């Protein structure tokens, strides 16, 4: 929990921003607050999980950032940036002139136990440590507005040297003794870490061929076997299913890595491996002990944003991310099953009610939104 004191002026009330490390949307919101000269209190919900749960209950949202002026919930970064000038000034006047009320959003939850940062032995803990380290590295090299990342500078930093030294330990991991939950947390963390590592070493893919090479060649040596991004996503986490534009399954019958693969595809991994929404899911590092709840939270965060799911009740249209088209087999083989899956994994919201009404009326058209492949690499 940190308080930004760079801005001039004191507030009678408080601006509170709930964030996570490495979230570009959080950075943009904080940059805007600094431009306005407004001090703010920042709470990392990944480090303060009990607070994160309380904020989800208060707002009905799973994404970050979530911004409050005193006890008034503004919403995410997109909501904040689009505030009309008159409304923004009214809110500024409130925090400048009015003290916090008793129902102000929490900075901590009494009796909760937070992450102590100590490193423990074990594969799952190793993946968590690697993920936290590279997220810090990523956050340290984000531009102030969160739009660009200096991957070249990241690769030259001492923190990255420490990361590489720690990553060598992946070779000694015993994958065969992992439970389902441990495999999910371990491989999601490693996948997301490997993507950033790949951007540093290979550069950011700019076309279809470069993306193919990136996902099929960027790899780690784990437990004595090589795992590419393709192997992790489609071989391990999707139960050895064919990936997008793939003619064959990642692992053949005689491949020893097949013994590590999950028995069935886990649809929720798509919202942990892909972040195309305007608000980032509030979990960046996954833990085995709470993996299923964390994945459901990531799915809710993805679906509450219009980049993931957009409803036009007047036209009877349901517009979905391309992820649901590419991996439709994981969610259901018909539009009806797909939409029912989405409905079951949405948080309570007006959007969920709209979708339910369309499903009940059996009158809808499923469309897919364009996918933004652009990167945030600083040239």
Helix-strand blueprint:
Blueprint: E1 2-4, E2 15-19, H1 24-35, E3 40-44, H2 49-59, E4 66-69, E5 72-75, H3 77-81, H4 85-97, H5 123-140, H6 151-156, H7 158-167, H8 180-202, H9 208-217, E6 219-222, E7 225-228, H10 229-237, H11 270-273, H12 291-304, E8 309-312, E9 317-320, H13 322-326, H14 328-331, H15 335-344, H16 350-361, E10 365-368
Parallel strand pairs: 2-3, 9-10
Antiparallel strand pairs: 1-3, 2-4, 4-5, 6-7, 8-9
Helix pairs in contact: 5-7, 5-8, 8-10, 15-16
Please tell me about this protein's structure.
The protein contains 16 helices and ten strands. The protein is of the alpha+beta class and 379 residues long. The protein has a five-stranded mixed sheet with strand order 1-3-2-4-5, sandwiched between helices. It has a three-stranded mixed sheet with strand order 8-9-10. Strands 6-7 form a two-stranded antiparallel sheet. Helix 5 runs parallel beside helix 8 and helix 8 packs antiparallel against helix 10. It is globular and about 70 Å long.
Short description:
This protein is of the alpha+beta class and 379 residues long. The protein has helices at 24-35, 49-59, 77-81, 85-97, 123-140, 151-156, 158-167, 180-202, 208-217, 229-237, 270-273, 291-304, 322-326, 328-331, 335-344, 350-361; strands spanning 2-4, 15-19, 40-44, 66-69, 72-75, 219-222, 225-228, 309-312, 317-320, 365-368.
């Amino acid at each position: 929990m940190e308080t930004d004191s760079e801005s001039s002026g004191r507030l009678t009330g408080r601006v509170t921003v709930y964030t996570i490390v490495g979230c570009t949307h959080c950075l943009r919101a904080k940059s805007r607050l600094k431009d306005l000269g407004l001090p703010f209190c920042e709470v990392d919900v990944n480090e303060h999980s009990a607070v994160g749960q309380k904020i989800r209950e208060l707002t009905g949202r799973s994404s970050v950032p979530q911004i409050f002026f005193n006890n008034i919930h503004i919403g995410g970064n997109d909501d904040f940036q689009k505030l009309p000038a008159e409304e923004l000034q009214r809110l500024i006047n409130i925090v400048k002139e009015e003290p916090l009320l008793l129902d102000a959003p929490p900075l901590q939850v009494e009796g909760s136990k937070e992450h102590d940062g100590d490193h423990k032995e074990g594969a799952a803990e190793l993946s968590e440590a690697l993920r936290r380290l590279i997220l810090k590295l990523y956050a340290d090299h984000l531009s102030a507005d969160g739009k660009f990342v200096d991957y070249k500078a990241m690769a030259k930093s001492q923190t990255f040297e420490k990361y590489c030294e720690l990553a060598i330990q992946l070779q000694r991991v015993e994958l065969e003794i992992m439970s389902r939950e441990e495999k999910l947390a371990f491989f999601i963390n490693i996948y997301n870490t490997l993507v950033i590592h790949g951007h540093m070493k290979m550069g950011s893919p700019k076309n279809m061929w470069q993306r193919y090479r990136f996902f099929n060649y960027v790899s780690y040596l784990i437990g004595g076997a090589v795992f590419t991004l393709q192997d992790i996503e489609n071989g391990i986490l999707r139960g050895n299913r064919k990936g997008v534009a793939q003619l064959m399954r990642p692992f053949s019958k005689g491949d020893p890595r097949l013994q590590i693969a999950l028995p069935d595809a886990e649809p929720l991994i798509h919202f942990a491996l892909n972040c195309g929404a305007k608000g980032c899911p509030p979990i960046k590092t996954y833990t085995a002990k709470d993996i299923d709840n964390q994945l459901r939270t990531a799915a809710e965060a993805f679906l509450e944003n219009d980049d993931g799911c957009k409803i036009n009740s007047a036209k009877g249209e349901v517009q979905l991310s391309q992820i649901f088209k590419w991996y439709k087999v994981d969610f259901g083989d018909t539009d009806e099953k797909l939409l029912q899956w989405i409905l079951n994994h949405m948080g309570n919201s007006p959007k969920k009610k709209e979708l339910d009404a369309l499903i009940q009326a059996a009158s809808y058209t499923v469309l897919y939104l364009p996918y933004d492949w652009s990167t945030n690499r600083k040239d």
